[in-house]
Amino acid sequence: xxxxxxxxxxxxxxxxxxxxxxxxxxxxxxxxxxxxxxxxxxxxxxxxxxxxxxxxxxxxxxxxxxxxxxxxxxxxxxxxxxxxxxxxxxxxxxxxxxxxxxxxxxxxxxxxxxxxxxxxxxxxxxxxxxxxxxxxxxxxxxxxxxxxxxxxxxxxxxxxxxxxxxxxxxxxxxxxxxxxxxxxx
Length: 185
Hints:
The protein is an all-alpha fold. It has helices spanning 2-32, 35-44, 49-60, 80-89, 103-120, 127-137, 139-145, 154-160, 164-180. The chain has one domain (35-184): Lysozyme, CATH 1.10.530.10. It is globular, with a radius of gyration of 20 Å. It starts with a helix and ends in a 5-residue tail after the last helix.
């Protein structure tokens, strides 16, 4: 009886190791799947690829078919307005928002929009904090929060945010970005 119990425990442990290994491999391959497209779209728009990958992680967890609750699509959860700005810059009259469900299109449109936002905040101490808040909560909210010292100081800006989820969004992406740097060396 003791032998059977040990044998059963051995099988359970082996299955657990296999399950953990499968989960880790699946997660690793899913996170690496779009690295080439991320690198291309990021560099074309003057963005660090590790930043874009961190945004993709936060926005869609690498699900190209993701759909947001406010009409956002794809890896970077691109809104119809942002996608149309990208299409207009390319003079693409046949463009439809659904095209952003294509991973490459989504990354190019999302990077175009994020790069444009980043340029708005060059005079701040940490432009990415302001740009990510804009990407998540919109320009109007950023303007509302960026008063006094918070207009150029990212610590004061994050403190002034009235949307805790936007603060978490910014902090999560900025914390995750360095971990993806090795993926693009």
